[in-house]
Amino acid sequence: MEESEDKYDKDYEEEYGEDFEEEIDSYEEEAIDAVQKLFNDNKEKVYYGRQIEVLLENQFFHWVTNRALRVLADRKIISKEVNKMGWGGSIILYFHNSFRYYKREASKVIKIVEAYSADMVSFSVGQYGELLTLEGFAKFQFVLKGRNVNEFMGKKWIASNHNLDMIVERDGIPYGIEIKNTLGYINKEEFELKIELCRFLGLKPVFVARMLPKNWMYMLIEQGGFGLLLKYQLFPPYLGSLAGQMENELGLPVKSPKSLFDGTIKRFENWHKKNVNSV
Hints:
By secondary structure, the protein is of the alpha/beta class.
């Protein structure tokens, strides 16, 4: 079971495993300018951290946007407010300094985030991502060899208590599948560990995720793996109303499809065929 990624606002170092240093490079300055422009163009909107990371992810890595937010808040260029959630955690909200009567907008954001960070919603979304992936692979004749497993063909991973969401195989080529149906990136340490786990078990690592940083994708390719990016976080249809709120009110990439598009798995199948031809 995945813990909700928005259960609380984590510090930069805790979430991304990087040092927050004072020196800022030109790329980070571009992010600072982009984040500031977002607020200048939307002076009567309230945002929270993860939301802005996702909104700007085509331009900047999440951790760079995260840092830009902190810099702007520290410089008092934008306003920052920590709010308590109904279950006791906290969320950091950001808004333009000129937005005096922001409370109503803030309440709307908090209400939506509280709804989708609830334990049952988090669990259901995680399970649904696995179900759609399993169904999609089966449709393209990839055979399931195990779920929630840490052993394969007589080898067992004992270096940690981690496992893989599933193992599938086709044409004699086995794949270790890790599924992250979340808005944020998978934790980098976990990402690297799952690659190592696959390598130990003799599997090609495959990550099914809404989004991965480009440099992590390159790392995955170098390890003989594949990143199947979904672009959207996938909610089960019975949570379609909440998914619609997240998309329409917060601008987040969330959908509630009944299955994965054939073209999504087709991308993986095409890559698989190249593996078969290279054997």
